[in-house]
């Protein structure tokens, strides 16, 4: 009998947001595949959990190579838990390849729902949320970033992006150039943490704010 792949959502900031089932799965899984094993250790300590299973790393750099190994564990009957640094696996995080490979082998895939940075930001943004499009991270190079933005320049649904703090000013400036300085937007950072901040305004205004540091 094949095992089960469990995708577990982890807190995006406040550890108190961890769902009760997360602790149960961390304690009982045969194998835990973690994006960062050091963060996993801090998470289990905070939740008072001692994993019984084997812990392996599973991140962008080894995802392709480790997926077949984990699939064989699943086919052999193991319960494999996948956790990433924050939020749900597969959403701009490792997981898609493992899910696809598990499905191909008729392995059951389920999830422990948890906090989502995408949905939290949308809810706080003050922008329309009845229809939206998640675009993940933009390319780091300026030309490629502009090209990606131009692909969706005519999109009227609310667009959601992830961005690193040190690239925020350049990205907002590029968005203002492509989408227009007056298009309404929101920058959400440190969500659920002590210094949570949501800055709302036109893209031009937000770009100027970010440029000031």
Automatic annotation (TrEMBL):
Gene3D superfamilies: Cobalt-precorrin-4 Transmethylase, Domain 1, Methyltransferase, Cobalt-precorrin-4 Transmethylase, Domain 2. Coiled coil: none annotated. The keyword S-adenosyl-L-methionine applies. Pfam families: TP_methylase. The keyword RNA-binding does not apply. Residues 4-207 form the Tetrapyrrole methylase domain. GO terms for biological process: methylation; rRNA processing. Keywords: Cytoplasm, Methyltransferase, rRNA processing, S-adenosyl-L-methionine, Transferase. GO terms for molecular function: methyltransferase activity. It comes from the Bacteria. This is 16S rRNA (Cytidine(1402)-2'-O)-methyltransferase. It comes from Streptomyces swartbergensis.
């Amino acid at each position: 009998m094949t095992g089960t792949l469990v995708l577990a959502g982890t807190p995006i900031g406040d550890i108190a947001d961890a769902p009760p089932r997360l602790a149960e799965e961390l304690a009982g899984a045969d194998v835990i595949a973690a994006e960062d094993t050091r963060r996993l250790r801090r998470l289990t300590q905070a939740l008072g959990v001692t994993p019984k299973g084997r812990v392996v790393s599973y991140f962008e750099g080894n995802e392709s190579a480790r997926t077949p190994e984990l699939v064989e564990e699943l086919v052999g009957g193991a319960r494999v838990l996948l956790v990433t640094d924050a939020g749900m696996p597969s959403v701009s995080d490792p997981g898609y390849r493992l899910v696809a490979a598990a499905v191909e082998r008729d392995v059951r895939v389920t999830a422990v729902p948890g906090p989502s940075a995408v949905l939290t930001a949308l809810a706080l943004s003050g922008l329309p949320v009845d229809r939206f499009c998640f675009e993940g991270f933009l390319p780091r190079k300026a030309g490629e970033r502009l090209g990606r933005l131009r692909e969706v320049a005519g999109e009227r649904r609310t667009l959601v992006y992830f961005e690193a703090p040190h690239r925020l000013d350049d990205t907002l400036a590029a968005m203002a150039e492509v989408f227009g300085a007056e298009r309404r937007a929101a920058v959400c950072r440190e969500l659920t943490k002590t210094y949570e901040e949501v800055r709302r305004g036109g893209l031009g205004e937000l770009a100027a704010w970010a440029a000031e540091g």
